[in-house]
Amino acid sequence: MNEKKINIYKNIMSSHEEWTGKIRDILKQNNITMYNIIGSPGCGKTALLEKLCPLLEKEHGKKCLVLEGDVETANDAERLSAVNIHAHQIVTHGACHLSAETIFRVLSDLTLADYDIVFVENVGNLVCPAEFDIGEQAKIAVISVTEGEDKPLKYPLLFRDSEAAVITKIDLVPYLKVNAEQYKQNILNVNGKSEVFVVSSDKEEGIGKLVTWLGSAQSTNRG
Ligand SMILES: Nc1nc2c(ncn2[C@@H]2O[C@H](COP(=O)(O)OP(=O)(O)OP(=O)(O)O)[C@@H](O)[C@H]2O)c(=O)[nH]1
Ligand SMILES: [Mg+2]
Ligand SMILES: [Zn+2]
After folding, report:
1. pLDDT for position 219
2. Which of 48, 95, 106, 219 is the most buried (most CB within 10 A)?
3. Sequence spans of domains, the chain
4. Ligand 2 centre from 177 Cα, in Å?
5. What is the predicted pLDDT for the residue at 69?
6. 43, 55, 121 from 201: Cα distances, Å
7. Which residue, judged by its Cα, is nearest atom 7 of ligand 1?
8. CA torsion, points 23, 24, 25, 28, in degrees to nearest 10?
9. What is the pLDDT of residues 132-171, one digit of tens each?
10. Could you tell me the mean pLDDT of each successive run of 10 residues in the chain, 223 residues long?
11. Sign of torsion over alpha carbons 18, 130, 35, 161
């Protein structure tokens, strides 16, 4: 009985690695950098992408594609399409993260030659998506100032595994009992190497630095 369990576990692991390997191949063939965007429901992932993608194209000539992961609805892909950002909705019908197999199948069906950057907006969740590699060059953690300064300490895996963290909704700080500097400090306490960006998508503040970082892709892990 124990032997059978061990065999099944090995099969799952090797198939996951096969999918991520295939994704890396497809990205390399098309010279694409893929980012896995992860954060709680409503932290502002889509609002951030709405601002980032046009600026990446305008200022760095980088054409972006967004894969949107949600449990239900095509709302986010529709929001992005409405502002002329190329977006493809993935509806998981219950699953709380995007699997490498799903990402591979979607990428295989799309014409990728036109794009330089693929952003995958993972299903809104601060825990589970961080556990599943999808062949990305880097994870980017997103956390809004309304969530509480201690969240990077309570949910450290995402922040530990991300090359960058984006603190969003900074325009709301005057209305909250929060300390924006403490968010940054707690992220750095979990991962001293993380880039930290502080933005308001609403007021278009702080976005420029993130655009420069994404546009230059200087990091060793990124394309
Ligand atoms: N004040 C303010 N509100 C923001 C900002 N960014 C996002 N919001 C609001 O926060 C809410 C959620 O934003 P979304 O972009 O949908 O968040 P999300 O992380 O994509 O949400 P899910 O995809 O459902 O997980 C919306 O009402 C946005 O208008 C910001 O910078 N400032
Ligand atoms: Mg969204
Ligand atoms: Zn999950």
Report:
1. 40
2. 48
3. 2-216
4. 25
5. 98
6. 11, 12, 16
7. 44
8. 120
9. 999 999 999 999 999 999 999 999 999 999 999 999 999 9
10. 57 79 97 98 98 98 98 98 98 97 97 96 98 97 98 98 98 96 98 98 98 78 48
11. negative
Least distant ligand from the CA of 172 = 1
> Which of the listed CATH numbers 3.40.50.300, 1.20.120.1630, 3.40.630.30, 2.60.40.10 matches domain 2-216?
3.40.50.300
- What pTM does this model have? 0.93
Residues 38, 136: contact at Cβ < 8 Å? no
Helices and strands (DSSP H and E) totals, the chain:
8, 7
- Write the residue with the smallest CA distance to atom 12 of ligand 1: 42
Q: Whose CA is nearest to atom 13 of ligand 1?
A: 44
Q: Which of 36, 46, 119, 128 to mutate to test the pocket of ligand 1 (most atoms within 8 A of CB)?
A: 46
Query: So what's the pLDDT on residue 25?
Result: 97
* Distance from Cα 122 to the centre of ligand 3, integer Å: 10
Atom of ligand 1 nearest to the CA of 76: 23
